[in-house]
Amino acid sequence: MFVPTPTHHDQQPTSGPPWWLVIGPGFAALIGLFLLTVIYRFDGSSALQIELGMSSQSLLLSGLVAYLVAAAIAFPAGLLLGARFPTSVTVPALFLMLLGVVLVAFVPSSGLLLVGRVLNGLGAGAAIGVTVALIRRLQSGRGAATGAAAGVGVLALVIAPFLGGLLSDAFSFRLVYVVAALFVVVALVVTGVVGIVALTKVKPQARPMPYPPQGPPQA
């Protein structure tokens, strides 16, 4: 008599995430760091401050402090959930960043600037938390990944006022945020593709489960 061979699903062994899973959240975190300092410039008042008629104190509170507070609130969520659900956390974070960037790009007054910067900060904080969580769980190359992420992050913070000032002087500060919105969309696509690839690689595979040897037939 033929008896079908049962199968069972292998569970993936507990291990750290692959290095390429950091690409999406890392890209989002880089954009968030760029947006943090792009509102300033080193050689005087920024175009955003002049066009919206803001004082230096108002720009500090609405543009910088609000961003940092929002990022600090969202960072623990990204850090705690990012290692297990990197795509599920990064995609909403990017949508918040996109909404905030678009709002700042077309903001008519300094009041809405505060809302846009809070949204940007929430998205950036969550993305940075996911990036840190993934890098901490890497099985190999953790030191190199940490150094590269820190170096590129500092570069983004430093170069943002220069690039923002150049675009603002040539066109408008609003163009800076339109371009940033395009980069956020690219980050969304990259994160989605990486997440789909990760899902296809973790699907359990079925394999036959052998029966224990059977004794001689009973008379």
Q: What does it look like?
A:
With 219 residues, the protein is mainly α. Helices cover 69% and strands 3% of the residues. The protein has 7 helices and 2 strands; from the N terminus they run βαααααααβ. It has a two-stranded antiparallel sheet with strand order 1-2. It is elongated and about 55 Å long.
Helices and strands, with pairings:
Blueprint: E1 7-9, H1 23-37, H2 47-51, H3 56-81, H4 86-105, H5 110-136, H6 142-170, H7 173-201, E2 206-208
Antiparallel strand pairs: 1-2
The CATH superfamily title = MFS general substrate transporter like domains
Architecture per CATH nomenclature, i.e. the level-2 architecture:
Up-down Bundle
Gyration radius over CA: 24 Å
What is the number of helical segments per DSSP (H or I, 4+ residues)? 7
- Share of helix among residues? 55-70%
Total beta strands: 2
Structural class: mainly alpha
CATH topology heading: Growth Hormone, Chain: A
- Shape type: elongated
Largest sheet: 2 strands, antiparallel
What is the CATH class designation?
Answer: Mainly Alpha
- Oligomer kind: single chain
Total of domains:
1
Distance between the termini: 17 Å
Order of strands, main sheet, comes to: 1-2
> Beta fraction of the residues?
under 5%
Helix-strand string: EHHHHHHHE
Low-confidence sequence ranges: 6-14
> Mean pLDDT, nearest integer?
81
